[in-house]
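anyone else get weird line breaks when pasting these?? whatever heres mine. first is seq + tokens for prot A
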Amino acid sequence: MGSCLSGERKNRKIVYSEIASTSHNDAVCTRKSSKMKITRRGCPADDATREMSLHRVPGRMFLNGSTDNATLFTRQGKKGVNQDAMIVWENFGSKEDATFCGVFDGHGPFGHMVAKKVRDSLPLKLSAQWELDATRENGQTEARCRVSPPTLINKDSEISHCDLARQDGYNDMYVNLKESFLKAFKVMDKELKLHPHIDCFTSGTTSVALVKQGRDLIIGNVGDSRAVLGTRDKSNSLIAVQLTVDLKPNLPREAERIRLCKGRIFALQSEPQIFRVWLPNSDCPGLAMARAFGDFCLKDFGLIAVPDVSYYHLTEKDEFVVLATDGVWDVLSNEEVVATVASVPRSSAARNLVDSATRAWRCKYPAAKVDDCAVVCLFLNSSETATAIPKEQEFTEEMETKLS
């Protein structure tokens, strides 16, 4: 419930955007100047041109709508501009059986700009890196040594490392794509740091992104957005399997890294369930996640943009994957999300899920402002074999929410 929080100093609230323009002498660790130099090469008009070119790419969807195999929907909450973004890219990397999906939850003064930038640029960087890594000589032992064994997620919601010797069928793809995820995320974060007109010092975004190729699923996660699988158990009952870990500051592995880097982790008395990351000597910015793109005020104090990469081998029992920002997970359980998606036609699944989350916010937290929500539902079986799910041939651009 809230990605970042302003601190207090001398009984005065520090507005989050002030951090980027306050001097070190005022006991807030910030950059020396908040003014950004805008060069002609990186001007907003150039970015707008590139963005329009991206929007015309076949199979790339970022607005509310659906296809035969996916549906996506976002709605602005009550906190201001919608800082969530989403994407479905079919035939990803010019591969007919590959799909890229992602949701991005921005935060901070320019979080909406960061989320959109990552939505537009990360898939391009991943595709380019994937193609580069795939051209390397097959059976390269150096890559196998550098990359840890695939993180497999089993149906009991536990995570374990499998023996590479038993994974000959998808070894190479996992190794290549994991390398590609790691490099693409690193380059993306570096680009944000050098961006000429998006100030990412106290703004950032989460990202949970996946690539599905055939029956292989690779997921890269930064932050506390989440991916959940709807699948059938041995008794053919529909169950939820969480595919990612919410990378919160109080997770032991995350907390250890942050504290070794002199960052502080604690929860406020007014919200004891939400642990946040704070600067060493100032009660700001109060980031409610341990990993994120951007937020460079905390990058020296334990915050990282390295993705947690995992692998899942799909079976015939797996029906759909749901990616959603924390506006959904804060109020709905994994089981509620899977049941909601399964109860409606696939073309309206994402919108119905956002509707359910909005109602849950008003019921559970009547005094709180409803958070932005973004949902992507990727269906794993063809509509011909799915029951009670109609086809929708064209992507519909519902402009109910205008992404800015």
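and prot B, same format (seq, then tokens)
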Amino acid sequence: MSSPSSKIVELTPSNASQTVPSVPRPLPELLYGYPKNTPMPWRERIRNFTPAWFYVTMGLAISSLQPIGIPWHHELLVLRVLFLIFWLATLLVIIAFIGLTVARYIMFPGMWRRVLDHPDEAMYLACFPMTLIPMENGMSEGIYLWYGFAGRNSVKWLWFTFACWVATTVLGYILAFIMFRKMVTVHMHDMKSMTGAWLSPFGALIVDGSAGSLMLPLLAAHNKSIAMFAALWSLMTLIIGFSVCCLILAILLQRMFVDGLPPAKHIWTSWSPLSVMTQTGFTLIAICGGFNDLLPVHYGKSAFLTNPAAGEVILGIGIAVGMCLWMISIVCLIFAIFAVWAVHRREGLIFGPNCWAWVFPFGVWAFHTYGLGLYLDSQFFRILGGILSIVTMLLCAGMAIITIPPFFKGTMFNYSYVVDDEAMGVVYSHKVDTSAVETSEKAA
């Protein structure tokens, strides 16, 4: 068996210009010398530790919020304990994954740039801020409300959570801009290689808006000016992320109509449209509910903001749009299940971190349903939301049980986009600035 390093093709200027963008390939049986289900040494596990591993923490984080979304006996100790177990487990896993990520880029110099320049793996960097947002929701809704952390000075914990949220949204904007720039100027794309992963950097902005929306009632109780800032900041972040995602969804639909479903390695990104729709619907309802608490204002001469009906109008619009997006989410859910099942029958699936991609969207759908039940006073949505929350926690626990053994055994690190493509001889060249080439030719 040849050594792994002997099969790696480095991204150097000399060979980058001679290669072409890759097209979907069958899943390789051998991964640079490591057969399937063969334990890897820790050095190779770290080398294969892609940003997609934060799908796991996203699933754990959204599951930690499900006890809050159960509408019956909300003050039961068992719900508080379940929340704390999931939340602390998520915190520990996040710390471990951050450590593995830092070790990857320290141990393998140049890996960070290759990840940023890769048209697939770079998209999953957005999973990190999407992991932090449910954790911050838990900090405000669970740690602050349920446990009254820090006692009499618990309001300081609320301000700390608010500061964490602002920092996370700034990180989300930075990543979205960097990925947009890379997609336009660096990444080589074609329609066949397009996947739902393109939604991730901009879908993260939608997720970023949700933590602020849930903090609005808590902030309003202490400072309405800061609460109004949080509401506007959340709404702006939501609208920017959702508008770009809608444009990308049109491209994704064209890709499926023309070229069919993505290959097995990328099929779990089919859950991304569900995440976009249901996260937008829930966040919009929460933001509009916050505006209803903040309006009308009792200063200034704005005919709208001082109108007693302003908050109710905004809330009505938010609930109507949120209901529409909930219905669209059902279509996205059915499509995601169909896509994974169809590709599983055609190619089979590799169990890896991407298999967790369904947990976060499903958990957000449960919370979206809970929000509709809360604002519509609907028993149907309450019961359905409670059932979905329980199912999310049970399935997440099941995923954790089947993930932990192969993770520590070293058989779950089955693919890394950068490492695998290099092993297969696929190197992605940068886009060529044709205007600069024409100018140099004319000068010559």
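btw re prot B: Strands lie at 30-31, 34-35. The chain has one domain: 40-416.
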